[in-house]
Amino acid sequence: MTAEIPGALRVAYKLLVNDRTKFTALVLGITFAVFLMIEMTSLFAGILSRASSTVINIGASLWIMDPSVQTVANTIPLPDYVLDEVRSIPGVKYAVPFYSGAALLKLSDGTYQAANVIGLDDSTLVGRPGLLKGKIEDIFAENGFLAVEDSEFYKLKGATLGSEFELNDNRGRIVGIAKVSSSGLFGVPTLYTTYYRALQYIPNTRFTISYVLAEPKHASDVTQIKARVAAAGYLALTKEEFTAKISDFYKYHTGIGTNMLLMTLFSFAVGLLISGQTFYTFILENIDKFGALKAIGAKGSALVTMILFQAAFVSLTGYGIGVGLCALVIWLARLQLPDYAAIITFLNLGVAFLMVVVIASISSYVGVRKVLRIEPFDIFRG
């Protein structure tokens, strides 16, 4: 049996690649399905990542918020006493106010541009971004703002150090060009300034704190801090929990998750139908060869191994080409479209691989049933 398998695999390989038309069709079917599946899931992963961009970029350990908050962009202002309450909790190393709000800028050429303005604590600048140009201390200068150089930066019309704009009849001046880990989702540029300048420039409700950012003294203090914040009627989440909460909102409470899931399932169905039908046709066209092998003494296990090898070879080849093609398309798209959000993750690759395994398994099952049912007598009689 051990000696029989390598020979059977060589025969299986030659049967597969010698019929170039069928082999190409099988590989292209898997490639197309894998490309679509990874493209859809990568786009969804990119959207989820950008939806949490503020949380990722600020990097605070704990975020204190109103329990009704669903995404970082939809803030519910907190009363000032929440900040004092958090600072009084044993185990809190420090707690600072954080502002995030929308603004309408009037640029130097007279055009208007929506922007996201982030206000950092004046005393500590917790969450400040790294700078490509300028000095961080210049944010304290009169009318000082930092502009983030991300995929939306071009909308500030060539902004550089010293560029000026108007915000609610107040003059703003860019004193630094910043870099962040993740670009935003909503297609608007981001500006950083101090907390109190943001309150001064942007109209607000009676309560002004978007979030309270806190740092525990030790990791073991997080549970206690959460309990004290909950007792006060508010919610404390770690950055990982807040990111997961935002992801869950887009997955289950918007149409984005449903649409992406349907497109992924359609891609899987297309790959299954194309590959299954083509593989079944391949088996039918080579049924006489399998029958001849059975007639000269090949065992059923060897024939099954041949079918499984052929399905696995085609599936892995198509998977590799599909992944490479998707990565190439995403790279090219990012060169031309700065807003393109797709990112390939290990989860995307794993999901696509599992679906390819299912496609290969079903295709193999169809082929195995057909081959095991053949009788050498019927082949030679024909």
Number of extended strands: 10
Strand order of the largest sheet: 2-3-8-5-7-6
The figure for the number of domains is 2
Regions with little confidence, pLDDT below 50 for 5+ residues: none
Strand content: 15-25%
State the separation between the terminal residues, measured CA to CA: 29 Å
Average per-residue pLDDT, rounded, comes to 85
Helix content: 40-55%
Question: Overall 3D geometry?
Answer: elongated
Rg result? 29 Å
Alpha plus pi helix count: 12
Category by helix and strand content: alpha+beta
Task: Give the ordered list of helices and strands.
Answer: HHHEHEEEEEEEHEHEHHHHHH
Largest sheet, strands/sense/barrel: 6 strands, mixed, barrel
Description of the structure:
The chain is of the alpha+beta class and 382 residues long. The protein has 2 domains: 4-51 and 255-381, no CATH class; 79-233, no CATH class. Helix content is 53%, strand content 18%. The protein has 12 helices and 10 strands. A 6-stranded mixed barrel has the order 2-3-8-5-7-6. α2 (20-51) runs antiparallel to α8 (255-285) and α2 (20-51) crosses α10. The longest helix is centred in the last third of the chain and has 37 residues, at 300-336. The model has no long low-confidence stretch (mean pLDDT 85).
